Every structure is written in structure tokens, then in C-alpha cells.
Amino acid sequence: MASTRLFEPRELLYPSNMLTIARLLLIPPTFRYLRQPERRREALACLGVAMLTDAIDGPLARARGEVSPLGELLDPVADKILINGTAIILSKTRDFPWWITGLLLFRDLGIIAAALVVIKRRSQITVAASTGKLTTALLTAAALLYVADGPRSGKPALYVAMVPFLLSFFQYGKRFLAVMRNQDE
């Protein structure tokens, strides 16, 4: 009988997945510090370290031959929670544009819904698009600038991040349609 598990428990011990889990564990203190203007340095440190784990976990998994279903699932979930939660808090506290927060939430909810459909129908986890990874990096830079200096430095970086963001929106949609078309074959 074939296993129906999405991942094997030993994948929890892969260094790359441990970094992703560390990123998930950094989310509560990051959000707490982001809501406290006097704790801006702590917020910068937590957000910076959390997103540094994102820069390291994928290359580490590939270098060690430990790309895993668990990592492919947890990594984008951690990114989406961190980026979207940060955008919401910064919209409330640092003049981060609400319309961009809305676009982020809309795109990411669409990605999650599409991924769930693909997992259900194909038992397959889809990986991030290249423009999605660039978007995450640039949104992180913009968020760090918003925390450090507010809209003066953050807004120009945010507008730069919107270019790959919009491209990723279409790239994810195109990939979803291609996966769903191949299902019928």
C-alpha cells in the first residue's frame, strides 16, 4: 500500500526545514515588536533574521539534496504569513499603502486556493515561481525600510517590488492553468 502522507517525519530534521520552522517561530515576536514603535530595532532584527532564513533554506536544501515536500509546503506558508502580516501591521502603524496590502492578500489567497486545488486533484505541491521569490526579497527590503525609516525610504522600494509582484501574479495564474490542463491528459 502506497503512503498517502505529504511528507515524512524525518524531513523535520533537515537543516533547511529547521530554518523554515525557525522563521515560523519568529513570526509572533516580529508581529509583537512591529506593533510597538519603541521596539523598532527588535522588529528590524526579528524581521531581518526571519527573512534571512528564507534566503538560506532553499539553497541549503538543494545543496544537501534535501528538497522535500515539507519544505515545499512550509516555506511559502511562512513567507505568506510573515509578508502579509507585516504588511497589515505596517499599514496600521507606518503608512504602508492599504491598497498594496489588499493586493498582496488577494494574490496570496489566490495562490493558496490554487495550490489546495492542485494538491487535492494531483497530490502534487507546486513550487514558487521565480518572480515570486524576487517579489518576496523586494517586499522584505521594502518592509525593512518601512520599519527603519517609514514611507520616505519604504515607499520607493515598495513601488519597485510591485513590478515583479504583478508579473508573479500572472506567472502563478498561467502555471495553475497549465497544471489543471495537464490533469485531463
TrEMBL record:
Q: Where is the signal peptide?
A: none
Major location, coarse class? membrane
Gene Ontology molecular-function annotations? CDP-diacylglycerol-glycerol-3-phosphate 3-phosphatidyltransferase activity
Bilayer-spanning residue ranges: 98-119, 131-148, 154-173
**How does the protein's chain sit in the membrane according to the entry?**
Multi-pass membrane protein
What family, per the record? Belongs to the CDP-alcohol phosphatidyltransferase class-I family.
Protein name per Swiss-Prot or TrEMBL: CDP-alcohol phosphatidyltransferase
Organism name: Candidatus Chloroploca asiatica
